[in-house]
Design brief:
about 350 residues, TIM Barrel, 2 domains, 4-stranded antiparallel beta sheet, 11 helices
């Protein structure tokens, strides 16, 4: 349930009403907008009488929310959420590009790529230390040593680091070391992991599952937010369809649809969406034009010899060329690239 307060209602009156509902075992979120404030009630609101709530002189309107997700719902939080990743803001008109290799392979590799993508305009460094792979015989990442190399690249560039968590047992490590915790497509509905990540103080990048609906995706965000961590960035990375020509199919319609359903920022991963380096640039530009708040790009200094996903990785010069074109579309969309 959403309770819209009348313009000019004091914070004291808003808190008094919120306390009243909290005493009835409802979880209450308060959103203060420019013109009015909103109370979002989570719980079994079927027992609440809307007419009685409207008797309060400070209440303008009462709305029941039919969707199962509450905290991630734009009805609860009309303004766009801005997620701060160690000083870098994503959402609310801020556009950020996260770039780096699929997997961390060596110190020289990750540090060199970090410097080059930063120079081209990336605001965060991505790199896989723990890698989920379809085959158990494929390279699974360097693990903790790979994370240490990411930290060395961060020390040399100052860029926040983004890497994927695979197991709840690593939550303490990620809380201490990682700036943006990534939940991969295969773990989107690993609810035990989502709940543990929801207890972290670090923001979360939640990728859409291979064949999941918008509602299922947002409900996974709701799992994280229900545990107290409301700093979630959604990531569209392409879905599995009948088409086999590309690795996945980029669902461009997800961008405006999610923005209508939720207040959370959404970024797009064109590398996994297409699966080929020549598709990355056009898909990236389409995502920006559709309203995305950022991009997640795989960049490798030697794609032919990459241990993971070399075929979909841009070289640093290709990434720089793409960034020049992306900047123009970001400007056209009235957003600001953050560095």
């Amino acid at each position: 349930m959403v309770i819209i307060m009348k313009p000019g209602t004091s914070q004291n009156e808003i808190r008094k009403l919120a306390a009243k509902f909290e005493a009835q075992n409802f979880r209450v979120g308060i959103t203060n907008g420019v013109d009015c404030s909103i109370l979002g009630l989570v719980g079994d609101t079927t027992k609440l009488d809307e007419d009685k709530i409207l008797l309060n002189e400070h209440v303008e309107r009462v709305m029941r929310v039919s969707e199962p997700f509450k905290k991630a719902n734009r009805k609860f939080h009309p303004a766009d959420t801005v997620v701060n990743v160690n000083g870098v803001e994503i959402g609310g008109g801020n556009f950020g590009v996260i770039a780096g290799p699929c997997s961390v392979e060596s110190k020289e590799q990750i540090v060199d790529i970090a410097k080059e993508v930063q120079q081209a305009g990336a605001c965060m460094l991505r790199g896989g230390a723990f890698k989920p792979r379809t085959s158990p015989y494929s390279f699974q990442g360097m693990g903790v040593p790979g994370l240490k190399l990411l930290l060395e690249a961060k020390a040399e560039t100052g860029m926040p680091i983004v890497t994927e968590i695979m197991s709840p047992k690593h939550c303490e490590l990620f809380e201490e070391k990682v700036d943006l915790v990534q939940i991969g497509a295969r773990n989107m509905q690993n609810f035990d992991l989502l709940k543990e990540v929801g207890k972290l103080s670090k923001p979360v990048l939640l990728k859409r599952g291979l064949s999941n609906s918008y509602e299922e995706w947002i409900m996974s965000a709701e799992y994280i937010m229900s545990e107290g961590n409301e700093n979630v960035i959604l990531c569209e990375r392409g879905i599995r369809t009948f088409e086999k020509y590309t690795r996945n199919t980029l669902d461009v319609s997800a961008i405006p649809a999610i923005k209508r359903m939720s207040h959370l920022p959404i970024v797009v991963d064109p590398s996994h969406s297409g699966g080929y380096s020549w598709l990355v640039e056009p898909l990236a530009m389409a995502a920006v034009a559709a309203g995305a708040d950022g991009l997640l790009i795989e960049v490798h200094n030697d794609p032919k010899h990459a241990l993971c996903d070399g075929q979909q990785s841009l070289t640093p010069p290709q990434f720089g060329q793409m960034m020049g074109k992306v900047q123009k579309i970001v400007d056209l969309m009235g957003k600001k690239v953050v560095y």
